[in-house]
Amino acid sequence: MHTKSSGNSSSFWKQFSGRIWIAILGICLVAVLLTACFESGSGSNADSGEVVIGLTDAESNFVKYEVDVVSLTLTKANGAVVNALPLATRVDFAQYVEMTEFLTVATVPVGRYIKATLTLDYQSADIQAENADGNAVPVETILDEDGLPITTLELAVHLQGIKSLVIAPGIPAHLTLDFDLHASNHVTFDNGQPTLTVKPSLMADVNPENPKIHRLRGPLKEVNVAESSFQVVIRPFIHVISGGDERFGTLKVVTDSNTFYDINGEQYRGIDGLGVLNQQQVLTAVVVIGDLNIALRRFEAEQVYAGSSVPGGALDVVTGNVIRRIANQLTVKGAVLIRAQGSVVFNDEMVIQLGDNTTVSRHLSRDPFGINDLSVGQRISVFGLLNNDESELDATEGHVRMQLTTIKGTVVSTDSSVIVNLTAFNGRNIQLFDFTGTGSGGNDAVASNYEVDPGSLDISGLETGAPVKFRGFVTPFGHAAEIADFEARTMVNVSEVKGVMIVTWPSPSSNAITPFSTNGLLLNLVGSEPFHHLNRAGVVVDLTQLGDPPFIEPKDEGTGLFQIVQDGSRQFYFTFDSFVEELTQRLENNGEVSHILTTGTFNDTNSILTSKLIIVGLK
Questions:
Q1: CA-CA distance, 382 to 204, in Å (whole number)?
Q2: What is the pLDDT of residue 121?
Q3: Segment-wise mean pLDDT, segments of 10 residues, the chain, 619 residues
Q4: What is the reported pLDDT for 233?
Q5: Beta bridge partners of 491
Q6: Does domain 214-309 have CATH number 2.60.40?
Q7: Which CATH number describes the domain made up of 316-402?
């Protein structure tokens, strides 16, 4: 099965009772008031500033979640509305994990903004959910919370108090909007056919302390070797990468001696790579991966890809995870294909043919690699020629780039290495992966006893049974018995990650929440469905399975952004005391709880979530 989309233009939790849940899919919009350090192609004056806007999501079990983003607006305190999106943009959010993509640079009038609104069009949505067997199933039925078909969906977040967005000349402002699909969507399967129910929720984070890694895509505008920088015309997502149209704006990229370059299939580092980039023609296709430096207000490049090294050039490109290998034939799952002419195709599975002339490289490395380095689980991008029915890619004269691979599971033991009970590679169910041949003499890798070499990573905080994620590379094919199965570069101890908790009561209840003055809120999960979960970095906890009922407490200072939504109105409180006082009074006056949404750190031992953001819905 495959679907196509024009070049112009979540996870659900599987329960073997037949219910699947949508895990986090975040849309993060990072707004930065630009100064000379963070240059774009548009000017600004005392009456306006420039805002860089990006989109992202987090790991989900969606195979595909493609919708049209038709508008993004910011509303000022005086009621004025600014449209920050120059063109409707089709986005497959399932493909943007652990990364933010720059969407546009917009000129915004100075002032205080109190609301951000995102509009999605589902009329031509292409959404595919993974069933219990790990296969992609198209979602044809998409409903709102009232059971009515969705055409367009408007999501709004109110920016008040400490969450206010103030834009003034020369003063940088940063805003992250999180459209959290795990808190907004529910998928059920009936006789194998999925139904998606959407209850939208949008949250905001002003001045993010740790912005995600960013991706910038578009034609090259100019290179300044003396300043170790270059400029790119923004072409987000699947917009055609050629041409000089600057409606989405331009962005300056800063490089240094560690910046890695892959230009027309050749690798460079530092000033040598910038010099080669300077030799490329204006409007050459470029993709940049790097960090948004909030303090210095600039985008710093870690990786730069240009020319034929960018998908959509002279060759077809497939990206996905290897689920099996037989001799020189790979099977790739969740294959996203970018055709040489620029169109995008999705195939749940695709066959890759390798040969002696296939060249291989690895993320951020100039070391030599070969086809024997490609093993089961590894995430790859393959450059080659697609056959007529788009089921097989011939890379016998092509190139394979090994990408950073994400594994997820629970800790079995820690010693010199970490043994993990694997649950997924890049979000795909571990049951899909055939490890035959990964070792020697039949001693292949085993998912329930998967050995990770942590290198110099600090693993002292890992405990047996704790959820964990690693990013790195799979051991070469046939060598799993001799060395560790996986070489880790980074680690996420999920227990230390801020999570998002959502609980809904379809029949509103007066007993759902018990306020305890300044101490916190005790939740009663009786009657809660379909949402009663906590999601941390794609690892989901069913709150009904905890030993103790969940308890939500404020941060030590007792301040934050707390909201009560009732009868179409929204009331804001900036201290937990005032919030609890009002909530208690409304519950005593026959108010009933319909939902609660909160974010914060969660203690698995005592089921306590500590938060500075709580939203309670009452009927």
A1: 37
A2: 97
A3: 42 34 41 48 65 71 87 92 92 78 82 89 92 87 90 86 71 65 77 86 66 88 98 91 89 96 94 98 95 84 95 85 98 85 79 98 93 98 90 95 95 94 92 95 94 95 91 96 94 87 92 85 93 83 92 90 88 91 94 93 93 93
A4: 96
A5: 470
A6: no
A7: 2.40.50
Structure tokens at 116: 């951000």
List 238's β-bridge partners, or say none.
Answer: none
User: Which residues, 6 or more positions from 71, have their beta carbon under 8 angstroms from its beta carbon?
Assistant: 83, 85, 88, 117, 118, 119
Report the distance separating Cα 355 and Cα 563, nearest Å: 60
Q: How far is CA 218 from CA 104, 234, 241, 312, 596, in A?
A: 11, 5, 5, 11, 41
Label residue 396 exposed, middle or buried (CB < 10 Å: 0-12, 13-18, 19+).
Answer: middle
CATH number for the region 405-496 comes to 2.40.50
Of 376, 380, 385, 348, give the one whose Cα is nearest residue 363.
Answer: 380
* CA 253/CA 243 separation, integer angstroms: 19
**pLDDT in the model for residue 352:** 98
Do residues 278 and 253 lie in contact, with contact meaning Cβ atoms separated by under 8 Å?
A: no
CB 222 within 8 A of CB 282: yes
Q: So where are the chain's domains?
A: 7-206, 214-309, 316-402, 405-496, 499-618
Would the pTM of this model clear 0.90, i.e. be above it? no
DSSP label of 61: S
pLDDT score for 578: 93
Q: Give the pLDDT confidence score for residue 48 in this predicted structure.
A: 79
Rounded Cα distance, 12 and 530, in Å: 11
Q: DSSP secondary-structure letter at 518? A: T
Which distant-in-sequence residues (6+ apart) come within 8 Å of 600 by Cβ? 498, 499, 501, 552, 609, 610, 611, 612, 613
Provide DSSP, 91-145.
EEGGG-BSEEEEEEEEEEESEEEEEEEEEEEEEEEEEEEE-TTS-EEE--EEEET
Rounded-to-10 torsion of CA 453, 24, 498, 166 = 130
Asked whether the domain spanning 405-496 has the same topology as the one spanning 214-309, the reply is yes
Q: For residue 66, give Cα distances in angstroms to 201, 334, 401, 403.
A: 18, 14, 25, 23
Half-sphere exposure (Cβ direction) of 559: Cα atoms closer than 13 Å: 4
Are the C-beta atoms of residues 610 and 553 closer than 8 Å to each other?
yes
Whole-number pLDDT of residue 441: 82
